[in-house]
Amino acid sequence: MLRSIVHLTAAAVLLGAPALPAEQKGSDHPARVQLDAARQVRQKAFKKSGEEKRSILEASIAEYQIVLEKFGKQKDACAEAAFRIGEIERSLGDAQDAREAFEKVLAFGAEQPTFAARAQLELGHIARRADQTDQAIALYQKLLEQYSAQETQAVAALTWIGKLEDRRGQSDKAREIWLSLADRFPSQPVPAIRAADLAALSALKSDDLQTARQIMQSTQERFSEDNQDQAWWSPAVEEALGKMKAARKLQQLQQDG
User: Fold this and answer.
1) Which of 116, 122, 190, 199 is most exposed by smallest CB count within 10 Å?
2) Looking only at Cα atoms, what is the longest distance across the chain?
3) How far apart are CA 130 and CA 172, in angstroms?
4) How far is CA 220 from CA 26, 170, 194, 197, 223, in A?
């Protein structure tokens, strides 16, 4: 941490939160109790701003840090604590400290991979925001390789890989990536529709109306309400189809002749 850590007792006095020394938390789930204490401190930053908000968030970091210092054997709790620290550091604009926290999540090797997948995704985002495209793609790809069962994060990673490839002029590769999402994650139809929309928009940007129409037709057929008997279908699927930007652009082009 680049800043000085606020001591737990001092933070509790400042914020009106009860001090929860590790040895006084009970024997069942002490790390979880500490996580909850940290969460309660963090919530006090809601609707605050400026230095007041920063002080509260720094105090919550100190609370999460206690989990890492006192309960290192409870890997899942430590992974969550490190992830929360990373989230807060990111919100404070401290990219390096956020990166270190997210990397620490991965180092814990927790039994539950949820926070590891989320941390891997955040590492990709940090690299992407720093315009480190190759590194970002590699980090997103690592998520797909190691945490593909965490579908929410895996879908986001695959979508971002497509966006980055498209940004550096690899539009054909980007479209292939986006259109692969439906097959790779068949239980995620809404992100698949959004990815197909990105693919169709990319084709339109290249003035390839035929490809755009083909993408739209196959997407509509695959996810239409005719498939209501499928386990993945829901009203959200129909809503996502209705919000496809490429459909409106194609319609406008047709009207313009």
Assistant:
1) 190
2) 75
3) 25
4) 56, 25, 12, 11, 5
Neighbour tally for 224: CB within 10 Å: 13
List, in sequence order, the alpha helices (H) in the chain. Answer: 8-15, 30-43, 50-70, 75-91, 95-108, 114-129, 133-146, 151-167, 171-184, 189-205, 209-223, 235-242, 245-256
Residues 6+ apart with CB under 8 A from 77: 31, 32, 34, 35, 67, 71
**How many other C-beta atoms lie within 10 A of the C-beta of residue 69?**
11
Residue type, 192: A
Alpha carbon of residue 78 to chain centroid: 19
Indicate the pTM of the whole model: 0.87
Could you give the CA distance from residue 57 to residue 41 in angstroms, rounded to a whole number?
A: 8
Please write the tens of the pLDDT for every residue from 62-105.
999 999 999 999 999 999 999 999 999 999 999 999 999 999 99
How many Å apart are CA 240 and CA 107, to the nearest integer?
37
Q: Please write the tens of the pLDDT for every residue from 34-59.
A: 999 999 999 999 999 999 999 999 99
